[in-house]
Design goal:
Largest sheet: 6 strands, mixed
Strand content: 15-25%
Order of helices and strands: HHEEEHHHHHHHHHHHHEEHEEEE
CATH class of one domain: Alpha Beta
Radius of gyration: 28 Å
CATH topology of one domain: Nuclear Transport Factor 2, Chain: A
Structural class: alpha+beta
Oligomer: single chain
Strand order of the largest sheet: 5-4-9-8-7-6
Number of strands: 9
């Protein structure tokens, strides 16, 4: 940045008026268009060139002529330092800072929406809006994380306005010998999501909270909360936002956030499973149990499976309303069909627990993706097996191979 002495002396006479001109210019442009100051320079003739950007690939240059040039320049330097949006480490935020929030945004939007497809759309829309509005980000009002989560919250609230409540199970179990019936629409069901996209904490205690909050039974309980209460609870208790940060993200007062959180807790207590009652995927005993489950399933060994299933175990297959309750009924159906006789299971981490990618033989003998299966374990036994039919196209999200070799 070059300052000519003659232009500086001439401009100092109208310093105050020049600063006022610049404040009005830059403030108005930032509020209306999201423009931010990139650079400014004074020419030997006393003219000032100001370069503005909208935070993307578009920029414009403004020329100021006359005795206020130097004052405008000095005001530009001061105003840029005072009003430039900053990250927590003092840097001016850029596209890479917004992109770095995709992981947490995915976990947040998935818990809000319960749908993998809707989560993709919501995160993408939130990131696009953040890119476009980056020039309007004000670090004096909120951190970049809070500001971007506020955008994502508004996107989710818009998507939930006309959405139905997603379920994990239909209201009534099927008859043992009943037909599957017609599949229900996709928006009737919760959808699975790999832990790699929903659990991002580093601290073990925080990891436990994030795993618990992405369990399918917990997500089903969240569906009973109004969207704003759902957001308040997730931001405060899962993502560790302060009351003030949550208020800023939801555009509410702190007392309103605390009231919403209290109501959310009361409703959730009526529907959620007991915290910690479901065994975690890192428990060695659980891993041993599930290894034996895979061996029994792939061998179609009904007697071995009986020893691994809880007496009240449930088996379900979204998008069909069909489901079975009770070990005897589940095993009766399993033994009466050879549909799974040659299938194989590969382990995955899904929804805070152990799951599997289930492969089924194709006509050429190779095993092709069939469905993602989620298992819940309680009291050392399998309590729920959920086979998400139609999820064979999502194996790549779980880093599963496209096929397995044919059985020898």
């Amino acid at each position: 940045m070059a300052v000519h002495p003659d232009g500086l002396v001439k401009g100092l006479r109208d310093l105050v008026s020049g600063v006022v001109v610049l404040v009005v210019l830059i403030t108005a442009s930032r509020r209306a268009l999201g423009w931010v100051l990139l650079a400014a320079a004074v020419t030997p003739s006393g003219d000032t060139l100001i370069v503005l950007s909208n935070g993307g690939s578009v920029s414009t240059a403004l020329g100021v002529h006359g005795c206020t040039a130097a004052a405008v320049l000095l005001g530009a330097v001061l105003l840029a330092e005072v009003t430039s949006p900053l990250c927590d480490d003092g840097r001016v935020p850029g596209v890479e800072d917004i992109e770095a929030l995709r992981g947490p945004l995915t976990g947040y939007c998935y818990r809000m929406l319960g749908s993998a497809a809707d989560t993709e759309d919501a995160v993408q829309e939130a990131v696009i809006r953040a890119h476009r509005q980056l020039g309007r980000f004000d670090p004096a009002r909120a951190s970049l994380r809070t500001w971007v989560h506020a955008i994502a919250t508004n996107v989710c609230l818009d998507m939930l306005r006309a959405a139905r409540r997603r379920e994990l199970l239909a209201p009534v179990p099927a008859a043992v010998d009943g037909e599957l019936g017609a599949p229900l629409p996709a928006d009737a069901w919760l959808e699975p999501m790999p832990d790699s996209r929903t659990v991002h904490a580093a601290d073990p205690a925080d990891v436990a909270v994030q795993r618990e909050s992405v369990r399918l039974a917990f997500l089903a309980a969240l569906q009973h909360l109004p969207p704003r209460q759902r957001a308040a609870l997730l931001l405060r208790e899962v993502f560790a936002f302060s009351a003030a940060e949550t208020a800023a993200a939801l555009e509410l007062s702190v007392p309103a956030v605390n009231s919403a959180l209290q109501r959310a807790r009361a409703t959730l207590a009526e529907h959620r499973p007991a915290p910690g009652a479901v065994a975690g995927p890192d428990d060695p005993a659980v891993r041993d149990l599930l290894a034996r489950y895979v061996a029994a399933f792939e061998a179609h060994d009904v007697a071995a499976l009986r020893a691994l299933l809880h007496r009240d175990t449930v088996s379900s297959m979204p998008p069909f309303a069909w489901w079975l309750s009770g070990r005897d009924d589940v095993l009766r159906v399993f033994a009466g069909s050879d549909a799974c006789a040659d299938d194989r299971l590969l382990p995955v981490r899904t929804n805070g627990t152990i799951g599997y990618g289930q492969y089924r033989p194709a006509e050429d003998g190779t095993l092709r993706p069939f469905a993602i299966v989620a298992l819940e374990v309680r009291d050392g036994l399998v309590t729920h097996s959920i086979t998400f039919l139609g999820t064979g196209t999502r194996f790549g999200e779980y880093d599963l191979p496209e096929f397995l070799p044919a059985h020898r």
